[in-house]
């Protein structure tokens, strides 16, 4: 994979990861909620007007456009496994931003993902 192609794939993956983080930040304002019939409209309205949720959805839209551009240049069998980079980004940023646990097992898993991405990128 050429550097420009890898950059495009990475940009799409990072946008997707940022979408997850924005969605998490937005939903943290609500805490745990039940999506019952009685609460459907009020909850949907709150979610639809939340800046974090809107930012996350916007990142998703842009990431899909970037991803389509990437797929026009890179084989899907190479590009798709690169999505696992998003897990690394999300795990580390969720630890830093939200205080989520990242234990030894997750760190080992992240290491395995990094090795796998390197092997696939070089193929």
What can you see in these coordinates?
This protein is an all-alpha fold and 123 residues long. It has one domain. It is 76% helix and 0% strand. It is built from 6 helices and no strands. The protein has helices spanning 3-28, 40-48, 51-71, 76-79, 84-98, 104-122. Helix 1 runs antiparallel to helix 3 (51-71), helix 1 (3-28) packs parallel to helix 5 and helix 5 runs antiparallel to helix 6. The radius of gyration is 17 Å and the shape is globular.
Low-confidence stretches: none
Radius of gyration: 17 Å
How large a portion of the residues is in β-strands, by DSSP E?
under 5%
Listing every helix as H and every strand as E from the N terminus to the C terminus, the arrangement reads HHHHHH
Would you count the extended β strands for me?
A: 0
Q: What is the SS-derived class?
A: mainly alpha
Tell me the span between the first and last alpha carbons.
8 Å
SSE diagram, text form:
Blueprint: H1 3-28, H2 40-48, H3 51-71, H4 76-79, H5 84-98, H6 104-122
Helix pairs in contact: 1-3, 1-5, 5-6
Brief write-up:
With 123 residues, the protein is mainly alpha-helical. It is 76% helix and 0% strand.
Looking at this protein, list some descriptive labels.
6 helices, 123 residues, 76% helix, mainly alpha
């Amino acid at each position: 994979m050429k550097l420009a192609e890898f950059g495009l794939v990475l940009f799409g993956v990072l946008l997707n990861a940022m979408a997850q983080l924005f969605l998490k930040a937005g939903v943290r304002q609500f805490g745990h909620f039940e999506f019952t019939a009685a609460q459907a409209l009020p909850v949907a309205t709150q979610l639809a007007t939340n800046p974090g949720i809107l930012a996350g959805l916007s990142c998703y839209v842009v990431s899909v456009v970037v991803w389509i551009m990437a797929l026009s240049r890179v084989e899907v069998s190479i590009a798709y496994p690169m999505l696992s980079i998003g897990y690394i980004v999300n795990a580390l940023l969720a630890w830093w931003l939200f205080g989520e646990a990242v234990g030894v097992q997750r760190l080992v898993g992240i290491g395995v993902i990094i090795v796998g991405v390197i092997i696939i990128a070089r193929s």
